[in-house]
Design a protein that fits this description.
With 816 residues, this protein is of the alpha/beta class. It binds beta-D-glucopyranose (BGC). One of its GO terms (biological process) is cellulose catabolic process.
Length: 816
Amino acid sequence: MSSALLGLTLSILVQVPWVSGQNFGGSGSTTDGFSWVQPLNTTILGQYGHSPAVYPAPLTTGKGGWEEALAKANAFLMQMTLDEKANFTTGQPGPCVGNTLPIERLGFPGLCLQDGPLAIRVADYSSVFPAGVTIASSWDRNLIYERGFAMGQEFRAKGAQVLLGPVSGPLGRSGYAGRNWEGFAADPYLTGVAMEKSILGIQDAGVQATAKHYIGNEQETQRNPTYNDEGIITFEAVSANIDDRTIHELYLWPFANAVRAGVSSVMCSYNRLNGSQACQNSKAQNGLLKGELGFQGYIQSDWGGTHSGIASVKSGLDMDMPGGLGNYGLINDGHSYFGGNLSIAVNNGTLNESRLDDMVLRILTPYFFLGQDKDFPSVDPSCADLNTFSPRSTWLREWNLTGERSRDVRANHGALIRKQAASSMVLLKNEGNALPLKAPKSIAIFGNAAGDDTQGFYNQVNFEYGSLSVGGGSGTGRLTYMVSPLEAIKTRAAKDNALVQQWLNNTLIATTDVSTLSIPDTPDVCLVFLKTWAEEGADRASLDVDWDGNNVVESVTGFCNNTIVVTQSSGINILPFADNANVTAILAAHYTGQEAGNSIVDVLYGDVNPSGKLPYTIALDSNDYNAPPTTAINTTGIEDWQSWFDEKLEIDYRYFDAHNISVRYEFGYGLSYTTFAITGNITIKAANANARVTALPEDLPVVPGGNPALWETLFEVCATVINNGSTTGETVPQLYLTFPNSTPAGTPPKQLRGFDKFSVTPGQTRDVTFALQRRDISYWDVVLQQWRIPEGDFTVFVGFSSRDLRAAVTLNALSA
Ligand code: BGC
């Protein structure tokens, strides 16, 4: 029996006997009078690793601004037949990565769902933007929005109503996870902001955003079940076993931001959560997402992530993607757990039609809300040609592809991408002001990431030669061009009439005495370009740079005492060469998108003053990290893939801080060509001086994002930043909170709860104000099932990284 069905037999609608007048226990009501109740007592709530049942699926109310769109959706629904409704909830093979059927008689064109989080992947003449981890490193709300908006414009112009991104699962529990680069930061606060800004940007361009992968999708290994030749499951998908507090304070947190931003869709993930497939986990979908967070849109499955019909429907899943029934669902044969099966279920009484209606309404409402019923471009026919996922041979019907083929949708986005990637670069080391370069006359370039790609631009695996500007899998992009670092440096160096020579073979460099490589003059600077591949479907085997990069650096530094290393990486790299005195600078560029070389050169030559900050921690040794992906399960039990998130809240810097472990470069760290300081004291003022702050939020009706009281700003923290260096630059003041001693054990020593980014000229001071919302200063009380502000003193730190805290002040929130 599947876990969800098992859950059904235990189905509980717990009443809350001993609590009155207070919305304890995760109970609530929506405006149509529907009430949802989540179990309170921890026995029912389930032991760690068990997912309690939460039924029924909450109905949409349109609350939070979608009321008018919901009314239109309702009017549309009234005209639909049962079969039309059932088919509305499933995908079918067609021109896009995901397709829903048109209903021609009602003028509905069907939905085109396209990957992914950094580009419209299955399309030509479109742009490849910086990856999630890259733009998160900018810590720049405006840039994140700008990137989302520009991507949304391209999706719209290509006829895709739905963009399959942004990503906040994985969050980055482990640096080894193969898809961290698609997401943002190993911190819920920064990721939450990035989700919100991305979604607002995408949806302001008229395209539905999809927050994915919900939830606990923190590794690729065994993310899906293993099947034998007869199609029988031999191993269930890995189960991410996460306790209630950790879910709320880490993994659910950014999804709450996404729902608050009005995200249209949420994609449930492949893995199991606490023993139950994520896409049929009623606690996660009915309880947390639609209940507690008041999500009004639709939950779609990851591709093949649906493993049942009615159990999933009752557990809150609204759309089966891509609609095939094969293993992993990847045989897109047009059969679906949903579709016709739901008509049968309604007719035989297994499924109440009101649930099917709600599924349809949830899918239709964002469509009307974003005005997609008016003048939306048709799917570009070239998308169908490029779609290897459901090629024409698999189609079950003709798709009417009209409109211009191969539309060029790139506009001026190349310039934006160049700027975005440059603003995201993290300068990790800069000894003796090695950077910016000062018109060097002789430049030696090393490393296989410097030059042009030699194996084409799309669908390569970890290729040896060429600049790496994007990772692999569904989150990749189809480059129309890529400016390599070598090309960009040659162009720039020509202005100085400089000599540029290159050695791009890592094996040769790593195994040769570089002084024997016929380098005519001692170069002014040696630039080493290294890369690190990551892709969907596989976790990283190592945190080192690829292609023997560490030895490449050793070799070059044996010859060159001004060696500057640039990494193009999916995320965390251990950088043993950072101690090498001949390595004068290290620049982490991450996956830059199509303008790679230009963005890097802008920073190297100082046209852009670096301002990126690490969205994760770089440890001294890979063994210093905790919480690796679960691998090497050597037993044969079908349930044996269990991943216990025993570290609870201690991921990334929270772990290093809790255990006082020295690190190489901490979360939030990044250098500039100038320097900044906090001047004067930091001050705190209550947002509402007349109201006393209560430990628990007022019990307000849930809106998208949850109880609105959680988003209320309670305190404002002000600090002043000065640029005490000699160049104009952008700074990122950061606010970290230490919770009072009364907070339950396991609370991390410091947690990011505010940041801002702005430019300051030399000698200038600028004030920064951080707004602390109720959620920011609360912990999740597992007994009360409520966000609670603890008694006692918080310490509020302001500084320039998680370990560079320049000023502090205490705050007793409850007696302020
Ligand atoms: C990925 C999703 C993606 C989907 C469609 C899945 O394998 O996990 O992120 O959107 O494929 O390509």
